[in-house]
Amino acid sequence: MNDGQKIEIEHHKKWDKFVQELTSGLTIQKTSKGIWLKSVEDKYEEEMIPVKIACTKKQIKIISDYTAKHYEQKAIMSYPISKKVNIIEYDNNFNRIKKGTN
Description:
alpha+beta; single chain; Alpha-Beta Plaits; 2 helices
């Protein structure tokens, strides 16, 4: 957190639950080192957890607002990985489940 306190696992789980309930899914990646420059004199270094989220533009705005408050962040970065994503579902025998015309 901004005051130097370590973030407890339960705090992360609360964020995970919020995003899971709002979206179609997420992939939580391994912790990375983030370095953010507001200016040459104003540099932030922190651990960060990259997350891939399947969601709409409206949902990412909701997630960004929630994340800023939940983690006391001054900036949230998000970007589209793809404008079109294909998800093919399979039954227990690994046969495609046909939906629509795709």
